[in-house]
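input
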Amino acid sequence: MEKTVGKAELNKQKKKSSLLDSAYSLFTLKGFNDTSISDIVRQAGVAKGTFYLYFNDKFDLRNKLIASQGERIFMAAISDLSGREDLPFEEQVIFLVDTILDRLAAEPMLVSFMSKHLSWGVFRNSLIDGSSSPGSVRKAYEEFMARSPVQYKDPDILLYMILEFISGASYNAILYDQPCPLAELKPHMYDGIRAILRSAEVK
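output
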């Protein structure tokens, strides 16, 4: 019986992943507004009714897609940080940001898609209200912040401010080399992140 349940759950996850993959492909190729739910389910190879088992509508799918892509990049950066925990905490934050920026620079289509549709709701659902179970973004962030030798006023708002700063400041640099290439902009961004961190310290 357990085997059957496991197989059914795996099949559900495959369908959901297929819908997310198809949506990302179509959104970046045709644009969000010009992509219909029918287009998505056709490319995913599932029935239209299946779509509504996982998503309320196209906007819900878009938000969950952005959250899943953001989680993928954040968790990869956390993994890259492994073995560098002896760095000062502030430099660990800069390392994470640098890793995230490099990964985003390697996926300009993702930058274009995410930056156009980031919202407080996406941030809240994936990070603030997310599960604290092992392996989750929420848990990884909590464990990372627990290593800080200083206390911050509101860690969730701090993360939000840093992510908004990264997203806004890097968008044109990654996509258009404006006002300068990303490599030239990074030192200025890192000065800004250090200032955000220090302003949020509990004195």
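quick obs: The radius of gyration is 19 Å.
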